């Protein structure tokens, strides 16, 4: 399942960059977006995950995020998240880029995940940009208001059509350019700028590994495609890498 080449690379001194998507959180009970149980099969993203949708119908958008925040508040990282946090301690240069907004990498101990699409448990004021961590949302379907200026609060996530926060872009560029070993884990590789990162890393000389339960548009470009659940594959890979050869 894991090539000798990959094991040897991981036993060496690689610059490791890992890009994760919704698939890494699937085994924690977080529905993915485009899989069989995908969220976008039930909802239209442009109706609930865009700035226009929020201006048009903030109550509906808040209802959607209130539901997702209530699910995500209680979920736990799975062995895939924990193993990535352990890998981070093994290498001098290690970067984690995530498209996920569930905060599970941080809960699992990853020090500074690059959160390309923000964090659903963080909210901010539309007017004065004051940030609110894990607010107690009003029970009724009201729109939470800023206690500093009275403006409407919104979830601190990147909606379709919005730009990635500059800090996350700058950090992820560095992670892509410096990688000698790049993992794309649990992402359908459909959404930019994340989707092009694995290919740009490979074009820059990195060895590209894709881990997914099914092939994606990225698979033909990967040096290795490893089929399976990330929560099972990652702990197994780490045990092989750290196994003392007797
Ligand atoms: N292990 C590994 N991969 C898995 C697992 C698993 N246990 N379960 C599902 N997958 C794979 C699916 O096969 C799919 O390729 O995870 C991928 C999830 O793809 P998407 O649902 O499209 O999620 P993602 O790639 O993260 O979407 C990117 O799109 O909707 C926007 O902002 C949203 O960040 C999201 C972005």
Describe this structure in words.
This protein has ten helices and nine strands. It is an alpha/beta fold and 246 residues long. The chain folds into two domains: 148 residues, TPP-binding domain (Rossmann fold); 71 residues, SIR2/SIRT2 'Small Domain', CATH 3.30.1600.10. The strands form two sheets. A six-stranded parallel sheet has the order 3-2-1-7-8-9, with helices on both faces. Strands 5-4-6 form a three-stranded antiparallel sheet, covered by helices on one side. Bound molecules: adenosine-5-diphosphoribose (APR). Adenosine-5-diphosphoribose binds next to helix 2, strand 8 and helix 10.
How many domains make up the coordinates? 2
| Number of H- or I-type helical stretches | 10
What is the count of β-strands? Answer: 9
Ligand set: adenosine-5-diphosphoribose
* Regions with little confidence, pLDDT below 50 for 5+ residues: none
CATH class of the largest domain: Alpha Beta
Shape: elongated
Rg over CA atoms? 19 Å
Order of helices and strands: HEHHHHHEHEEEEHEHEEH
Main sheet attributes: strand count, strand direction, barrel closure: 6 strands, parallel
CATH architectural category of the largest domain? 3-Layer(aba) Sandwich
Spatially, the strands of the biggest sheet line up as 3-2-1-7-8-9
CATH superfamily of the largest domain: TPP-binding domain
């Amino acid at each position: 399942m894991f090539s000798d080449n990959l094991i040897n690379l991981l036993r060496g001194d690689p610059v490791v960059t890992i890009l994760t998507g919704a698939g890494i959180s699937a085994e924690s009970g977080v529905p993915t977006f485009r899989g069989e149980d995908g969220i976008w099969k039930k909802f239209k993203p442009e109706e609930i995950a865009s700035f226009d949708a929020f201006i048009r119908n903030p109550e509906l958008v808040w209802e959607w995020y209130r539901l997702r925040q209530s699910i995500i508040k209680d979920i736990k990282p799975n062995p895939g998240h924990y193993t990535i946090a352990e890998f981070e301690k093994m290498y001098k240069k290690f970067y984690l880029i995530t498209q996920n907004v569930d905060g599970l990498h941080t809960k699992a101990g990853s020090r500074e995940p690059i959160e390309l699409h923000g964090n659903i448990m963080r909210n901010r004021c539309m007017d004065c940009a004051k940030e609110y961590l894990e607010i107690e949302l009003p029970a009724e379907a009201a729109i939470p208001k800023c206690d500093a200026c009275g403006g409407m609060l919104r979830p601190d996530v990147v909606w379709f059509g919005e730009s990635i926060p500059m800090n996350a872009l700058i950090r992820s560029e560095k992670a892509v350019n410096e990688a000698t070993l790049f993992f794309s884990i649990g992402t359908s590789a459909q959404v930019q700028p994340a989707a092009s990162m694995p290919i740009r890393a490979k074009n820059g000389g990195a060895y590209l590994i894709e881990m997914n339960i099914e092939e994606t548009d990225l698979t033909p470009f990967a040096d290795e495609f490893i089929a399976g659940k990330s929560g099972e594959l990652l702990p197994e890979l780490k045990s092989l890498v750290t196994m003392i050869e007797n």
